[in-house]
Design a protein that fits this description.
Blueprint: E1 2-4, H1 8-17, E2 21-26, H2 31-47, E3 51-55, H3 60-65, E4 73-78, E5 81-87, H4 92-104, H5 111-116
Parallel strand pairs: 1-3, 2-3
Antiparallel strand pairs: 2-4, 4-5
Helix pairs in contact: 2-4
């Protein structure tokens, strides 16, 4: 289930505590956002990971903090560090594969090893 958040410090705290989490940044009256949302919710449920939503119109700071220029934007995090971002056109297969890799990764695996094995 997607959790809508409007408080940046709360969001950053939540992201930093999760091994894998997703942030969905949307805008009102965005038809692509409307199409992406249910697929993203389904993915989060299937992978049992938290999914947070921020509306860039309600909380403009989110676009600035995460340097998002278009909506929708989907950012994949591991313990508060951005691992992947996709905007406008979301590749759900790639996102799913990266989530799987992060969920299987142990603490000793470094960033380069993780993404070089899936290039």
């Amino acid at each position: 289930m997607m959790e809508k958040i409007s408080d940046m410090p709360k969001l950053q705290n939540l992201l930093s505590q999760q091994k894998v989490s997703l942030l969905y940044i949307s805008m009102p009256n965005c038809s692509v956002c409307t199409a992406v949302k249910p697929r993203l919710e389904k993915l989060a449920v299937e992978k049992t990971i938290p999914l947070y939503q921020m509306d860039a119109a309600e909380t403009p700071l989110v676009a600035s903090v995460f340097q998002v220029l278009t909506a929708p934007a989907v950012l994949l995090f591991s313990y508060g560090k951005e691992q992947q971002r996709q905007a406008r056109f979301i590749d759900f297969n790639k996102l799913s594969q990266l989530i799987d890799a992060l969920q299987k990764a142990d603490a000793t695996l470094d960033y380069e090893d993780l993404f070089n094995s899936h290039s």
